[in-house]
Write a structure and sequence with these properties.
Number of strands: 6
CATH architecture: 2-Layer Sandwich
Structural class: alpha+beta
Radius of gyration: 21 Å
Largest sheet: 6 strands, antiparallel
Number of domains: 1
Strand content: 15-25%
CATH class: Alpha Beta
Number of helices: 5
Strand order of the largest sheet: 1-2-3-4-6-5
CATH topology: Yope Regulator, Chain: A
Distance between the termini: 67 Å
């Protein structure tokens, strides 16, 4: 039994070691590279200091980077946080678990935000673009599907709640 455990541990270690030796296909993300990517998404994007403002589907997006902390945050304002009741807050937390994907609902400075937060340097181009899209989607679907995109992480509450709408509409359709 001891030999099996050692073999499993060595196999896991060897697999991790091999992953570290994998070739890097993209340069590390930095503010300049991020700005270049954003300008492809929105040629009218504005840069100020360590921040970028852009618009996607008429939704304002603010991206802030901190090179020293190696972090970035893309944010979309959704609404005032005032008046969010316990049921709505619960729904936001359910969506954060399964349907918001890499974006999240967050409350800061009296506002509800859609946010995507990630370490800066390991962020890949497609992850970055997807994160922005998911953040815009959580804002657009707020009050409805509360979704970052087409996928959902399993075992959460959102699929059942979203299915409830489908079932309700199907029931209404049977009245014809």
């Amino acid at each position: 039994m001891r030999h099996v455990a050692i073999a499993v541990v060595f196999g896991v270690w060897a697999g991790l070691s091999g992953a570290q030796d994998a070739p890097v296909t993209e340069p590390p993300m930095d503010f300049q590279r991020m700005t270049d990517i954003v300008r492809l998404l929105d040629p009218d994007a504005r840069v100020a200091g360590n921040a970028i403002e852009l618009t996607i589907d008429d939704i304002p997006v603010l991206i802030i980077t901190d090179a020293r902390a190696d972090r970035m945050r893309a944010m979309v304002p959704i609404r005032s946080a005032e008046g969010i009741d316990a049921d709505e807050m619960r729904r936001l937390m359910q969506a954060n678990f399964d349907s918001a994907l890499d974006a999240r609902y967050a409350v800061a400075r009296g506002r509800l935000w859609g946010v995507f937060i990630h370490p800066l340097s390991p962020l890949e181009r497609d992850q970055f673009i997807s994160g922005i899209a998911q953040t815009v989607n959580v804002a657009k679907t707020y009050g409805g599907l509360y979704s970052g995109g087409a996928m959902q992480f399993g075992n959460g509450d959102s699929p059942g709640l979203q299915r409830e709408l489908i079932d309700r509409l199907l029931k209404k359709g049977q009245e014809l």
